[in-house]
Amino acid sequence: MTMYTEMVRMVRKQVYIREDQESQLKRAAKTLGVTESELIRRGVDQATAEVMKGPRDPEAWEEAMAFMRKRAAMRVPQTGRSWTRYELYEDD
């Protein structure tokens, strides 16, 4: 049983896949007893699951963002330097 057994509105998409992916898709669909479209839908669900979750710990994420904003706003005095980048490298 799949998560798409109920009547849901489907949108048609045309995609390009490599020949080896087509073979894999056909084999997997036959092995699992589902359509190739169902496997593609599952792949989309799996590929987007992590992205759609958002930060795992919103409080930690906001704390990190606040820290980054604070660092970005810092004014660091530029005192100049008496060396060049090339002087940092050893001469062979």
Question: What's the topology here?
Answer:
Elements: H1 19-32, H2 36-53, H3 58-73
Helix pairs in contact: 1-2
Strand tally: 0
Whole-number total of structural domains: 1
Largest sheet: none
Give the overall form.
Answer: elongated
Q: Tell me roughly what share of residues is in helical segments.
A: 40-55%
Oligomer class: single chain
Total helices: the number is: 3
Order of helices and strands: HHH
Strand content: under 5%
In the predicted model, the low-confidence regions spanning at least 5 consecutive residues are none
Mean pLDDT: 87
How far apart the termini lie comes to 68 Å
Radius of gyration: 26 Å
Write a short abstract of this structure.
With 92 residues, this protein is mainly alpha-helical.
Question: Can you describe this structure?
Answer:
- There is one protein chain.
- The longest helix has 18 residues, at about 35-55.
- By secondary structure, the protein is mostly helical.
- The protein is elongated, with a radius of gyration of 26 Å.
- It has one domain.
- Helix 1 packs across helix 2.
- The protein has helices spanning about 20-30, 35-55, 60-75.
What tags apply to this protein structure?
mainly alpha; single chain
